[in-house]
Amino acid sequence: MLHILYIIAITAEAMTAALSAGRRDMDWVGVCIIAWVTALGGGTVRNVLFGHYPMSWVEHPEYLIITAGAALLAAFIASIMTKLKKLFLYLDAMGLVVFTIIGCRVAQEIHLPYLIVLFSGMITGCAGGVLRDVLCNEVPFLFRKEIYASAAIVTGAVYIGVEHFHGSELLATILAALVGLTIRLLSIKYEWQMPKFVYKDEWH
């Protein structure tokens, strides 16, 4: 089930990434690259940091085909996607929790400390979006007011906590996904925001 949700998540991430590329007038190659970076970048950054190989898209090259195909499809139906913005926000929320749980699992498999397991989940869930925004010359979504990284942290913490107290992996996955998804969706509905740090004075 987690693998099926992962495929859905990377497809949705690739499609929304294509729109970001389109807003920057990128060609078809650029659209595909932005889609790959967004959908698969979080896991790639995690694996590079922890020396965990092979990359998921190297082991499963079909992920590259799926995400590129989804991105090109999105480019053709961009006007329709605009009308489905809310749906893709929900799919993005699902992707966040799925990527986070997978990131935690990978870190556990290589026996990293709990804090690093939590960090691995957050990186996997969020880094792809950061790379997308940087390449598209935008302030990363993660660093603005949205409840995003914090939702990933809570998701990872629930997953680790349930397993630590001898819950099954299935139970940990279900509870973490429900809690993380609830937080993210409520933050979208009620426009919850993280406190901002605003500093205007010049130092020179």
UniProtKB/TrEMBL annotation:
Stored Pfam families: Gly_transporter (PF03458)
InterPro entries listed in its UniProt record: Gly_transporter
TM region(s), chain numbering: 28-51, 63-80, 87-108, 114-135, 147-164, 170-187
Keywords: Cell membrane, Membrane, Transmembrane, Transmembrane helix
Residue stretches making up the Glycine transporter domain: 4-77, 90-162
Keyword Transmembrane attributed: yes
GO CC, one annotated term: plasma membrane
The organism's place on the tree of life at top rank: Bacteria
Keyword Membrane in record: yes
Compartment annotation: Cell membrane
Membrane topology, record value: Multi-pass membrane protein
Family note: Belongs to the UPF0126 family.
Family annotation (PANTHER family): INNER MEMBRANE PROTEIN, UPF0126 INNER MEMBRANE PROTEIN YADS-RELATED
Protein name: Glycine transporter domain-containing protein
Organism, scientific name: Pedobacter paludis
Lineage: Bacteria, Pseudomonadati, Bacteroidota, Sphingobacteriia, Sphingobacteriales
